[in-house]
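Blinded run. Sample ID left blank on purpose so nobody reads anything into the name before looking at the predicted structure. Input follows.
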Amino acid sequence: MAKSGRYRVPFRRRRERITNYYKRRKLILSQKPRFVVRVTNRYIVVQVIDAKPFGDITLAAAHSKELSEKFGWKGGTKNLPAAYLVGMLAARRALEKGVREAVLDIGLKRAVKGARVFAAAKGAVDAGLSIPVGEGVLPDENRVKGVHIAEYARLLQSSAEKTPIFSDYFKRGLDPVNVVDHFEEVVQRIQSSL
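Blinded prediction complete.
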C-alpha cells in the first residue's frame, strides 16, 4: 500500500453521497436564496434557504404533511399534485418574508422532465416567486392537477378486479375520481390562508 501524503479524504457528506459541493458552490455564488426541494419516501419538503458564512438560514418551509393537517388535502403526500401544492405553500410563505426570487436546488435528484421537483417549482412560480426554470422541464397542467390519477381510478372502477391501489384515498374520504376538484379546493385554501 502506498504511503503518499497527497491523498485528501473527501468531506463526510460527499463520501456519503449526500451533498455535491460543486453544485452547491455554483448555487451559492448566485447570491440568491435557494428553493430546495427534497423528496423522501413518504413526503415532500420544500425550503427557501439563504446561505450565510456562519451557516444556512431557512427563510420559509413547507411539508406535505401540512397539506393534510392544515389544508384538508386527502390525496397522496408525495405525488405530483402534492409537490405542486407544497411548492405553492412554501413560495407564499417566502413572499411574506420578502423573498422575491430564488434558484432551484434539486440536490442529487436527476433532472427529469416533469418530475416532482419541477412540479414544486411550478407551484412556486404560479404563486409569484421568480425561479429561473425552463418551460420544457415543467410538468403538464393536467398532470399537476391529478387528471392522470382520476383517469386511472376510472379505469380501475370499470375493471372487475378489486385492487388496493387507492385504499389510502378511500380511508381519508376521497374518491380518486374527484381528485381534480379536490385539488382546486386546496389551492383556494392555500391562496386564502396567507
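Unblinding after everyone has recorded impressions. The first helix runs from residue 12 to 15.
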